[in-house]
């Protein structure tokens, strides 16, 4: 089973166990909203523009509401579980390339909003995939950082690459060192700073600004 499919199955199981009203780390969203978001991304790509573009956010939100009304929570979870849908199913490798990180982050959005959560111990191959994708995409995720950032990976399998540098903020300005496992670093760079188990070192003011920055895609 691919990493994307494994995360898809895991979040589907968690949806079913927690129910539609469970909280998530996505501001204002319940599990029901998150399930609708995942279905919208795959099956209504023309309506997904509002995920990144504020001018289209109203349209995207309207389509998301319509999906909830049409399918209900159980129907949406079935669609998530049965995926990938849309062109993700048609183009070989697209699901694994695009959805591995997406489903990992949203699975954690649901897990970490519940009481008593703990970080998962990830399979080494998934850990390496996350680090490889993060190393390639961190500069974009950190583009709105007000300070420079250096990412330090810990817990890597022997022989794996252990460090990446992503420059953000004004040239020559302060830098913050962010240390954690690949999954925790991904969550931090994806905008889940408050809920990522990482260590931040640097000027206290720079650290505070980075914690509040609008990071992510």
From TrEMBL:
<protein>
    <submittedName>
        <fullName>Uncharacterized protein (TIGR03085 family)</fullName>
    </submittedName>
</protein>
<dbReference type="InterPro" id="IPR034660">
    <property type="entry name" value="DinB/YfiT-like"/>
</dbReference>
<dbReference type="InterPro" id="IPR017517">
    <property type="entry name" value="Maleyloyr_isom"/>
</dbReference>
<dbReference type="InterPro" id="IPR017519">
    <property type="entry name" value="CHP03085"/>
</dbReference>
């Amino acid at each position: 089973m691919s990493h994307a499919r494994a995360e898809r199955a895991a979040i589907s199981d968690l949806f079913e166990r927690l129910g539609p009203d469970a909280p998530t780390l996505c501001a204002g969203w319940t599990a029901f909203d998150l399930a609708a978001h995942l279905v919208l991304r795959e099956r209504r790509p023309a309506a997904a523009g509002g995920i990144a573009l504020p001018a289209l956010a109203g349209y995207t939100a309207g389509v998301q509401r319509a999906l909830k009304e049409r399918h209900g929570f159980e129907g949406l979870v079935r669609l998530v579980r049965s995926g990938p849908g849309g062109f993700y199913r048609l183009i070989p490798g697209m699901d694994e390339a695009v959805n591995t990180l997406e489903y990992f982050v949203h699975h954690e959005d649901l897990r970490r909003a519940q009481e008593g959560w703990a970080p998962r111990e990830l399979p080494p191959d998934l850990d390496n995939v996350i680090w490889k994708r993060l190393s390639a995409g961190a500069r974009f995720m950190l583009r709105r950082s007000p300070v420079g950032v250096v990412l330090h990976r810990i817990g890597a399998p022997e022989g794996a690459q252990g460090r990446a540098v992503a420059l953000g903020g004004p040239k020559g300005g302060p830098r913050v060192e962010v240390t954690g496992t690949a999954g925790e670093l991904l969550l931090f760079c994806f905008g889940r700073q408050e809920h990522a188990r990482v260590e931040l070192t640097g000027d206290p003011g720079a650290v505070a600004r980075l914690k509040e920055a609008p990071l992510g895609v």
